[in-house]
């Protein structure tokens, strides 16, 4: 009963050997037994009967017989020494190209920063020259203003005198009108 069940499980699922003396069978969901998938622990199958040497060599030449329901695995083999050396050379070449690119990019960034600093320095020198010219022009204007200051004071004094004369002229005009009015009164008498 159990071996029959094992055969049925192997057909429906995948058989995997574990480190213990039991075998683990994985069932996909929705198998012929119905229900959900799962796993079951089974005792290991009996060892195969010994094969005579003639049949063994013939079986090796023909290759293993494969049951489509059973998965097989091949042993991983290490690549040849020449392949490893070639892969290492390829890896080092690509790493060298990558590092060269990174260093070149960093170098270009520093060159760009250096050029930007030079341009900024030139702009500041131009602005410094402009500021020096403005300062020189302001000093010249201050000197000219200082030279014009006495004349401006005279103009202010003349303006004050003109205002005083204007007031005197208004007073004189008012006085002359009063005199004229008195003269007319005297004439009428």
UniProtKB/TrEMBL annotation:
GO terms for biological process: anterograde synaptic vesicle transport; endosomal transport; extrinsic apoptotic signaling pathway via death domain receptors; lysosome localization; mitochondrial outer membrane permeabilization. Residues 42-53 have a biased composition (Pro residues). GO terms for cellular component: axon cytoplasm; BLOC-1 complex; BORC complex; cytosol; gamma-tubulin complex; mitochondrion. GO terms for molecular function: gamma-tubulin binding. Residues 34-80 are annotated as: Disordered. It comes from the Eukaryota. It holds the Pfam family BLOC1_2. InterPro entries: BLOC1_su2. Belongs to the BLOC1S2 family. PANTHER family: BIOGENESIS OF LYSOSOME-RELATED ORGANELLES COMPLEX 1 SUBUNIT 2. This is Biosis of lysosomal organelles complex 1 subunit 2. It comes from Podarcis muralis (Wall lizard).
